Structure formats: C-alpha cells, structure tokens
C-alpha cells in the first residue's frame, strides 16, 4: 500500500521584541500570535531575534516560507520617518526597528507571504518611505483608537467598522468588517509603494497592501490574532496566509 503523505507545514518567521526582565534583555512576543499561526494558519512559527545589523535578513528569509510582523507595546522611533521626538519615557525598541524594516523590504521584494499586524502595519509603511502620526487621538476629527478597559477582553473587544477593499475584501468576503482598536500611532502619509485596502469611519488607514503584490502581502492596523477562532474575518485571514505560505495563491 502506498504511504500517505501530509502537506508540509511551512515555517513562518516572527520578529521578536527586545524586553528587559530582571535586568536581562529578553527576546519575546505575545503567545497569541504563535497560537494563531499554529492553529489558525497551520504553520510552524519561529521567533526571529531582534539583532538589528547583526541579523542576516537575506539568510533568514532563505529558510522561511512566510513572515508575520506582530504588534507591540512599543512605538517606532520618530527619527525613522522624520517625526517629532517622542515624549520622555515612551516605550521604544530600536533593536526591533533595526530588524523588522530590512526584513520587510527583502520579503516584499522576494514576493514572500507577509502578514503585518498593528505595529507591523506602521513598520511596513515606514520601511517603504511613509510617515506616521504619533498621536492619532490628538488630531481633529479622529477617534481615540487606544484600547480602553480594565481587562484584556475589554481592551480588545470590537470597537468600530472598517470599509474593506482589494485582497482584504476578497479573503474575508466582506465589505464591512467589525474590528478592535488598540493603537496610538497610525499612518500619516501612505508610502508610495502601498495602496489602502481599508479605512475606519474617521479616516484612519486600517489596511494596506503593496502595489503589484505577488500573493498574500497585507498589513492591518487591528489585531485579528486576538481570539482569531471566534471571528470569521480573522479566521479567514489566517487561513489565507497559511495557504499562501504553502504556495496556494489567495
């Protein structure tokens, strides 16, 4: 009897953040991203250390089938996009900045599947020459997109609708999607190499995709990894990303 074979599970890189614990630098990212990749996308997630210039982006991507850029409590350094200096004490992560931006550029150039979330969307925009608003809630006519509540469930609850287009609409099958909102920064000037695929009612850019992207290359401002199995749009996004890492066109 011929031996049955199962599809190869792709390897997906996840750039970690640099944190300090008891005086020791640590490399970590919230476990929910790993769960969404393993259970929702059906891939093998692996952390990429935030080593900056010491990281061989080309070498890492030679061995990976996809790249997921996760969210983070930290913000990109304003110097990277010509913004005003951040207030003293604001959490930044220069090691992550120096790691993710080159990884994004190389991955997009290669046509590798890329799924960027929250800070990841902001990193994709900056990596390609765009700029950010450092304080969306201070802009006239904008809502406060920072997560509010005493518990994580309260902070990550659905907050507003977005109007979807392009790949995002095709993958989810929806023009209107209800999403959570847990961010302070957001896109100001969209990079020339990106096209907008979703906006919030107040005009905040909620999703972008590289122009002429070959396959699944998408960045979203919300957090689809949060309880991904309970939301149809989130489930669809991770399934499509996993399929793209297997070589299946979205």
Describe the structure.
The protein is of the alpha/beta class. The chain has one domain: Rossmann fold. Helices cover 27% and strands 23% of the residues. It has seven helices and 13 strands. β2 and β3 form a beta hairpin. α3 packs across α4. The longest helix has 17 residues. The radius of gyration is 17 Å and the shape is globular.
How would you summarize what this structure contains?
This protein has 250 residues and is an alpha/beta fold. Helices cover 27% and strands 23% of the residues.
List the helices and strands and how they pair.
Blueprint: E1 11-15, E2 17-21, E3 24-28, H1 31-41, E4 44-48, H2 57-62, E5 66-69, H3 94-110, E6 114-117, H4 119-127, E7 132-133, H5 152-155, E8 160-164, H6 166-172, E9 176-179, E10 186-187, E11 194-199, E12 205-210, E13 217-220, H7 232-245
Parallel strand pairs: 1-4, 1-5, 5-6, 6-13
Antiparallel strand pairs: 2-3, 7-10, 8-9, 8-11, 11-12, 12-13
């Amino acid at each position: 009897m011929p031996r049955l074979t199962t599809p190869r599970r792709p390897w997906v890189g996840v750039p970690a953040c640099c944190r300090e614990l008891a005086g020791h630098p640590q490399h970590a990212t919230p476990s929910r991203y790993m769960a969404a990749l393993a259970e929702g996308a059906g891939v093998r997630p692996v952390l990429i250390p935030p080593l900056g210039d010491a990281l061989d982006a080309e070498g890492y991507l030679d061995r990976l089938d996809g790249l997921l850029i996760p969210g983070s409590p930290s913000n990109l350094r304003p110097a990277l996009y010509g913004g005003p200096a951040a207030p003293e004490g604001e959490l930044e992560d220069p090691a992550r900045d120096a790691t993710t931006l080159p990884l994004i550029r190389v991955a997009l150039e290669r046509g590798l599947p890329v799924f960027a979330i929250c800070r990841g969307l902001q990193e994709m925009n900056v990596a390609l020459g765009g700029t950010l608003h450092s304080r969306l809630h201070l802009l006239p006519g904008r809502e406060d997109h920072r997560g509010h509540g005493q518990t994580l469930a309260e902070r990550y609850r659905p907050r507003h609708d977005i109007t979807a287009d392009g790949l995002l609409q095709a993958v989810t099958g929806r023009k209107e999607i209800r999403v959570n909102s847990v961010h302070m920064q957001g896109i100001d000037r969209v990079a020339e190499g990106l096209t907008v695929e979703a906006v919030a009612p107040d005009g905040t850019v909620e999703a972008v995709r590289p122009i002429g992207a070959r396959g699944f290359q998408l960045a979203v401002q919300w957090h689809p990894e949060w309880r991904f199995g309970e939301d149809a749009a989130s489930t669809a996004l991770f399934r499509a990303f996993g399929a793209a890492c297997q070589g299946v066109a979205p």
